[in-house]
Amino acid sequence: MLLLKSQKVYYESTLTAKAVKKKFDKRVIPFKARGSIIEVSSFIKKYKTAEVFYGGRDGNKLRLSHHAPRKTDGSGATFYGEIRENGEGSVIEGKITLPIATRIFAAIWLAAVLFFALICFALETYSGALAFAVTAAVSVLIIFRDSGKTNKLRAELEKLCEDE
User: Fold this and answer.
1) Residue 70 sits in which domain range?
2) What is the pLDDT of residue 77?
3) Residue 28: what are its φ and ψ, rounded to 5°?
């Protein structure tokens, strides 16, 4: 499945918002990438062989990502949302999407590849145009692949909402 657009998620819990926050803080490794690829890379190397959930919480705002063992997945699907009180319990609501840096890179990369495909087509170099068009299609498959991240994030969010 491709993650071309954001997926909205909504989970209700009988736990209070305070209890969900506490559970989140226990289960998730705190990490906030500040736009540095090197920082993300060193974090992923640190947990190279472990399956971990990482992210952060700022008040009621949540950010949650998943790292699979032996993968370099710092630009994968991420949950962005918030915890709210809901009568007797709480609600986690947000969206699962690709980080903004990944989406910007994808837009620039695809625009450049398609531009070169159009140039080759205009110059009647059809094999070059076809090669660039195939490169664009493969790029979409690689950049927007889900690799099961969405399901892992959903499962972790469900665990956060479960009563212990």
Assistant:
1) 1-98+147-164
2) 86
3) -110, 135
